Amino acid sequence: MSGELFEEIIEALGTFAFAISGIRLAAAKKYDIFGAFIVGFATAVGGGTLRDLLLGAPVFWLSAPRYLAWTVVAMLFFLLFRDFVNRLGQTIMLFDTLGLALFNMVGIKVALGMGSSMLVAVIMGTITGTAGGVMRDILIQEPPVIFQKKEIYAVACLPGGGVYAAGHYLGINDIFLQITTIIVVICIRIITHRKNISLPYADA
Amino acid sequence: MSGELFEEIIEALGTFAFAISGIRLAAAKKYDIFGAFIVGFATAVGGGTLRDLLLGAPVFWLSAPRYLAWTVVAMLFFLLFRDFVNRLGQTIMLFDTLGLALFNMVGIKVALGMGSSMLVAVIMGTITGTAGGVMRDILIQEPPVIFQKKEIYAVACLPGGGVYAAGHYLGINDIFLQITTIIVVICIRIITHRKNISLPYADA
Amino acid sequence: MSGELFEEIIEALGTFAFAISGIRLAAAKKYDIFGAFIVGFATAVGGGTLRDLLLGAPVFWLSAPRYLAWTVVAMLFFLLFRDFVNRLGQTIMLFDTLGLALFNMVGIKVALGMGSSMLVAVIMGTITGTAGGVMRDILIQEPPVIFQKKEIYAVACLPGGGVYAAGHYLGINDIFLQITTIIVVICIRIITHRKNISLPYADA
């Protein structure tokens, strides 16, 4: 029960963070408020939706109107504090990193709950954390930023998944392990960003 | 039985209208006849397909080859009367509005038939009415027109859904209520279009 | 059993061919190695994934990690022999034609195995053979090449499907029939390519 509450809280934070990132980029592309809302919602729930479709699970947000509600909150927050949100810069990157780490963890848990292997669960964590951002970029007609920027972004989910898998097999307390996994992803993302550690181009 | 026939007729009209809109835009982008056909088919069945995937329902057009047949009819109509279709202008907008209103109603009915809540049904109506157009725009590599044009388009589905929901709880005759819902969406769309009532940009 | 092995072999070859095509185009767009890998994987498994989602079948690569492994092999092959792969030109087209013909056959078999009608099976063959390439083009933000180039590409799957359907009803040995279908698609593609036989534009 306490585990469920913990998961609901990290889902709410991740949804808000991703919705803001979608709304902000759509607004910069001169999308209207409906378009920005849909791009925000797709960014927030797109990864989890693709995960559920691939796993054959019921699509999570259909039975949980709170995801729609959090996107409405993000939209209102953006409309009220637009200048503030647009000036955020680096802070937005922290937001986005938070969403990535939180959704990665949610995706791993959902896949394991559906009886997936640990390999599939780690892949589903990465998809949950990153596919919404790819959908956002396709909806605003930009090349997906996570494929081009060379940053350690989606790739940061993999060591996170590795840590979770190792701890899971060692029988470590699950909530403690989830928090550790989230922190690992956040740390890898921030440290590689600060130190300019990046992926090579495919066509060097 | 009479209700089923009514639904088949509105589905046929909506399919034809949306297929023509996809074929026309793809042709203008110098797509070949195969490409135009696929864009037309995606525009026509894309919204309902996304709805069925999200609801976990069997994808409607797999067991109903008539949707494919109607797209073939739309393709032949376009090839035979190309100049006529390209000169349509405002009339195309009426076509498109008809497809929107009809598919919105179909989506609401399908979702309720799957046991969805009324909130989910209204969302599924909007998705059925509009997601095909978004897929069309992505396949022709344009920013989705419904996100940018500020017009009351997808948003017109919401009051339609509201009217259906209200009438449904009041126990009004369903065919009468469906026709009313379709007319409400069409009227909102045409009136806001005529009066230049539009949505604000997200980044005003 | 021998039939299953035959299908596994053609799936492996098709996966490698399509993954290389995706990785190569993503690399040319300055995607990083993660981006190129994902585009390669989407090109390779995208068609089969869409087929499985539409049919309501379990998504094939979730229970078969070998598809992921073959994409890793394709990625390593590309990184090691980049200059060689980039100089291939016409040979790449042969690769791609092989993938198309092989995946078309796989898609027909999977759909029939799910109890689909022959019409749906032929459509699913075409989707399995071509939708990965459309996803590739959307992920690299180019208009889908199969919609514009006027070549007999996706359309080559249809006579292949017709041959399979005819042979199936005549009770011809299935492995022999599958090989024939694959050869028919390859021949139609190569002959029309050599003779510059092409589709007309939709807006001639």
Structure, explained:
With 204 residues, chain A is mainly α. Chain A has one domain (2-194). The first copy, chain A, has nine helices and no strands. Chain A has helices at residues 2-28, 33-55, 66-80, 82-86, 90-113, 118-139, 145-148, 157-169, 174-194. In chain A, helix 2 (33-55) runs antiparallel to helix 6 (118-139). At the A-B interface, helix 1, helix 2 and helix 3 of A face helix 2, helix 6 and helix 7 of B.
Topology:
Three copies of one chain form a homotrimer.
Chain A: H1 2-28, H2 33-55, H3 66-80, H4 82-86, H5 90-113, H6 118-139, H7 145-148, H8 157-169, H9 174-194
Helix pairs in contact in A: 1-2, 1-3, 1-5, 2-3, 2-6, 5-6, 5-9, 6-8, 8-9
Largest interface by residue count?
A-B, 29 and 27 residues
List the quaternary state of the chains.
homotrimer
> How many domains comprise the coordinates of chain A?
1
Large-scale geometry of chain A = globular
Poorly predicted parts of chain A:
none
Q: Which structural class do the helices and strands of chain A define?
A: mainly alpha
Question: Into which percentage range does the β-strand content of chain A fall?
Answer: under 5%
Q: Give the termini separation of chain A.
A: 50 Å
Biggest β-sheet description of chain A: none
| Number of β-strand runs of chain A | 0
In which range does the helix fraction of chain A lie? Answer: over 70%
Mean pLDDT of chain A: 90
